[in-house]
Write a structure and sequence with these properties.
Layout (H helix, E strand, L loop, with lengths): L2 H15 L6 H16 L10 E6 L9 E8 L2 E8 L12 H9 L5 E4 L3 E5 L14 E4 L7 H7 L7 H26 L3 H8 L9 H30 L31 H14 L8 E5 L4 E5 L6 E6 L6 E5 L5 E5 L11 H13 L1
Parallel strand pairs: 3-4
Antiparallel strand pairs: 1-2, 2-3, 4-5, 5-6, 7-8, 8-9, 9-10, 10-11
Helix pairs in contact: 1-2, 6-7
């Protein structure tokens, strides 16, 4: 089973059982032990690999335990501290995890409540656990970009040097993404002055700064829209009539507009299409999965054929939904309460549909 499939299965289980889980021990049994076994790939019944209630006396702190220690031979791989499902994750309430991390030779730790998994290492100071995680896996809002990183943390692929390099990149890329996102949302005066200096010789008075802040925000928004449309057309091999036209070449041109058919392809639909294509490409070539937008729904088709639908997206409703066709072409409707990322929880059904179409 792939990491992607294991995570999707566990996410479904969490969604189903979360309302009835009331204790930390039940959280461990229902969610965390399966995560260790099915996602990370360790034998939870082998005490040489997975040690529950691991004890390492620290100074005057005697008898304190960390919930799990994962080892390979004499080497620690992970220390895991568990909280009850739904409980907030805060290192201030996981002091034993920090102390154990600092006195053992482990380089990686996990703090989890069964739904959210925070991964820590020691990038800021040697032999001292970082205050912020380098990776977060949220089963209620799965980011597909975490799968390759999770794969590197599984038992067959575990390599401390590779993981530390990955953790450093993830930490700083994540921080930079937050800064970039903040700039797109509200450009800072520093960024506005930097960019404006490249296009105008006007002195940045308070009035000009306000004007160019608005202009910079407009330009950044238009760039994002144009880039989304360009990528969408590329994904459809420039042939699919999705209603999106090429971005204008002229910097002074108006923002990209849709054709007069009234169809508007949203960023959410593009993201959902990418997720479905990533799921189904294990069964059929990605190039044979197409998106065809309409006014009331967005169709995902095999071989761009209306008679071979994989799914339909209805994301403009108050509660967005996906309709997945079964191998016998029945419709199964699922609400996407957690956003388009929740499509991953229906990966098995999408693969089954794609496989049936390929075999037909």
């Amino acid at each position: 089973m792939s990491v992607e499939q294991a995570v999707a299965n566990l996410a479904r289980k969490v969604k189903e059982l979360k309302p009835i889980i009331e204790t930390e021990e039940a959280t461990k049994t229902a969610f965390i032990i399966p995560f260790i076994s099915q996602v990370l790939g360790y034998e939870v019944t082998d005490p040489r690999e997975v040690i529950p209630e691991y004890t390492a006396d620290v100074g005057t702190k005697k008898g304190e335990k960390v919930d799990f220690a994962i080892k390979q031979g004499d080497d620690f791989r992970f220390l895991i501290e568990c909280k009850k499902i739904g409980a907030p994750l805060d290192l201030n309430h996981a002091s034993q995890l920090v102390r154990y991390f600092n006195i053992t030779d482990t380089e990686f730790a996990i703090l989890t409540n069964g739904e959210v998994y925070q991964f820590y290492t020691q990038l800021d100071r040697a032999n001292r656990m970082d205050e912020k995680p380098f990776l977060i896996l949220d089963l209620a809002n799965i980011d597909p970009r975490t799968f390759p990183n999770l794969e590197k943390m599984t038992k067959p692929h575990f390599d401390p040097t590779t993981l530390l390099a990955m953790a450093e990149e993830l930490k700083y890329v994540s921080a930079l993404r937050r800064e970039v996102a903040a700039e797109f949302k509200e450009p800072s005066p520093e960024l506005v002055r930097l960019i404006a200096a490249r296009v105008t010789s006007q002195r940045m008075t308070a009035q000009n700064l306000e004007k160019f802040t608005e202009l910079t925000h407009t330009a950044m928004t238009q760039y994002l829209r144009d880039e989304v449309n360009r990528r969408l057309r590329s994904a459809q091999d420039l042939e699919d009539p999705s209603g999106v036209v090429d971005a204008p070449e002229d910097d002074q041109a108006a923002p990209t507009e849709v054709e007069d058919d009234g169809i508007v392809t949203t960023e959410e639909e593009v993201a959902a299409f990418s997720i479905i294509r990533a799921i189904c490409c294990s069964e059929v070539p990605a190039s044979e999965i197409y998106m065809r937008d309409a006014k009331s729904y967005c169709a995902i088709l095999y071989q761009d054929n209306n008679r071979k639908p994989i799914a339909r997206l209805q994301l403009d409703r108050q509660i967005p939904r996906i309709i997945i066709f079964t191998p016998d072409r029945q419709e199964e409707i699922y609400d996407l309460l957690g956003g388009v990322e929740e499509i991953y929880t229906h990966a098995d059904k999408l693969r089954a549909r794609a496989k049936s179409l390929a075999e037909a």
